[in-house]
């Protein structure tokens, strides 16, 4: 029996579908429309999970606030530590925070993290790039891309997001220096935009400045949709937590505006200062954290929605978007009972992974906290395991430069272009059998083009030069 168990674990470790592996015990279930979603624990006994990223190796990459970076096997739950960063300062809400992987990880195995550290007795924040070795299982060669940002024990931000154009966004909190959020000379209370080498993009809103947006209090979620739209979650004071649509150069109001421009003084400030109002607000506050986009057939009721991990109110919230992405028509809460939820990511198989944050000093940790929780539709059968279908398509030219043509067998369906991390960067719904892919915003590299239609699903590689 022991040898059989080891053999099964070896199969699971290859990343094969979980139908070949023992499923973790269900902790609870809930309904999303007619779909039953099962919650189970993937990994336990962790400490203040801050970030979860689905990696190109089909592992989950994780940061814990104390300074540890690990890879987690999504089939077995095995945690494989890579590095504990020595100069991380964990105090209050500070510590090791956001992380993102280079979109061309196979050729540029870089891992970007942001964390707090102590410099001359003061708390600071910096963005650092590490190099990953798959053979050694290590992260080495730290390179500071941006440092000496003012920090405090609260309001540090900081999510990282690499956009489809190959630039990096980094959110920063106001570090309890509220006026700095409105100062374009300060890096606090901002969403910053950098090139992946740390330099400043030439087309940033202010020439020579890393500033992308300003007037933020404590933004802790960032996501870009395949259509290019960017959204952020942000903590308010005792009122007006926010979901914002991020637009280059815009002012988001803090501290002069709390939430909507619905007070006389706020309305005047908004008019005079190009303030972008949030799409939705919460009063009393809920403490919104990690934010992702769900567009997978495994859980149809969540398709085309934002999913928000919530700290104070201990829940997962679905935020639907209108066709233009300018309003949130509905907010639906799910999945309570596991305490503070901070990190969230989605696998290419449509499973949602959530990291709890009950050991952050503000929760009531259970004996097994903190945990990575898996949310999945166990009745869903992926297209790849269904009987062979007649769906096939062609891409030409391939390699391509600024555009490519896709020839489909039948009209309709959906085309999704993803990077090698499995993250959608572009999508289109063809009306006929021929579709044009606009590749102008994509960096050179290898991508995956997935076609979904009545006949099934198929995927092809596309090289962008």
Short descriptors:
Immunoglobulin-like; globular; Quinoprot_gluc/sorb_DH_b-prop; 2 helices; 5-stranded antiparallel beta sheet; 465 residues; 4-stranded antiparallel beta sheet
What does it look like?
The protein is mainly beta and 465 residues long. The chain folds into 2 domains: 23-376, TolB, C-terminal domain (Neuraminidase, 6 Propeller), CATH 2.120.10; 390-464, Immunoglobulin-like, CATH 2.60.40. Helix content is 5%, strand content 42%. The protein is built from 2 helices and 32 strands. The protein has helices at residues 2-13, 264-272; strands spanning 26-32, 35-43, 49-54, 60-64, 68-72, 79-84, 96-101, 110-119, 122-133, 138-150, 160-162, 167-171, 190-195, 211-214, 219-224, 230-234, 241-246, 280-282, 288-294, 305-310, 315-320, 331-334, 341-346, 352-356, 372-376, 394-396, 403-407, 414-418, 424-428, 434-438, 445-453, 456-464. The strands form 8 sheets. It has a 5-stranded antiparallel β-sheet, with no helix packed on it. A 4-stranded antiparallel β-sheet has the order 3-4-5-6, with no helix packed on it. The protein has a 4-stranded antiparallel β-sheet with strand order 7-8-9-10, with no helix packed on it. β16 and β17 (241-246) form a beta hairpin. The chain is globular, with a radius of gyration of 22 Å. Residues 395-464 form the Secretion system C-terminal sorting domain.
């Amino acid at each position: 029996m022991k040898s059989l168990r080891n053999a099964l674990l070896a199969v699971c470790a290859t990343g094969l579908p979980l139908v070949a592996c023992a499923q973790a015990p269900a902790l609870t279930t809930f309904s999303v429309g007619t779909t039953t979603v099962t919650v189970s624990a993937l990994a336990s006994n962790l400490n203040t999970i801050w970030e979860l990223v689905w990696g190109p190796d089909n592992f989950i990459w994780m940061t814990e606030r104390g300074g540890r970076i690990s890879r987690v096997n999504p089939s077995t739950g095995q945690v494989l530590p890579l590095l504990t960063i020595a100069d991380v300062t964990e105090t209050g809400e500070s510590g090791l925070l956001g992380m993102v992987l280079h979109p061309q990880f196979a050729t540029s195995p870089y891992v970007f993290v942001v964390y707090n550290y102590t410099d001359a007795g003061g708390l600071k924040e910096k963005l650092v790039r590490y190099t990953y070795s798959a053979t050694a299982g290590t992260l080495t060669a730290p390179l500071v891309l941006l440092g000496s940002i003012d920090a405090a024990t609260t309001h540090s931000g900081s999510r990282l997001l690499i956009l489809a154009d190959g630039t990096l966004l980094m959110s920063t909190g106001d570090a309890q220096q509220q006026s700095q959020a409105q100062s374009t000379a300060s890096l606090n209370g901002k969403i910053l935009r950098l090139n992946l080498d740390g330099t400043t993009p030439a087309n940033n809103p202010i020439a020579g400045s890393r500033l992308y947006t300003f007037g933020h209090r404590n933004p802790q979620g960032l996501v870009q949709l395949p259509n290019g739209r960017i959204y952020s979650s942000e903590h308010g004071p005792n009122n007006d937590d926010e979901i914002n649509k991020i637009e280059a150069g815009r002012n988001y109001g803090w501290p002069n505006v709390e939430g909507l421009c619905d007070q006389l003084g706020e309305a005047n400030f908004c008019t005079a200062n190009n303030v972008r109002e949030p799409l939705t607000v919460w009063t009393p506050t809920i403490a919104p954290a990690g934010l992702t986009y769900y567009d997978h057939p495994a859980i149809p009721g969540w398709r085309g929605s934002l999913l928000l991990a919530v700290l104070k109110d201990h829940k997962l919230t679905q935020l639907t978007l209108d066709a233009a992405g300018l309003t949130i028509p509905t907010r639906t809460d799910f999945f309570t009972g596991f305490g503070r939820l901070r990190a969230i990511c989605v696998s290419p198989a449509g499973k949602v992974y959530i990291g709890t944050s009950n050991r952050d000093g503000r929760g009531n940790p259970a004996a097994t906290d903190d945990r990575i929780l898996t949310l999945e539709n166990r009745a869903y059968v992926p297209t790849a395991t269904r009987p062979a279908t007649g769906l096939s398509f062609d891409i030409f030219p391939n390699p391509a430069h600024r555009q490519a043509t896709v020839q489909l067998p039948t009209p309709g369906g959906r085309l999704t272009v993803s990077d090698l991390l499995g993250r959608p960067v572009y999508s289109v719904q063809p009306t006929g059998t021929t579709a044009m892919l606009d590749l102008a915003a994509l960096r050179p590299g290898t991508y995956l083009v997935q076609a979904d239609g009545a006949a099934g699903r198929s995927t092809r590689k596309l090289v962008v030069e």
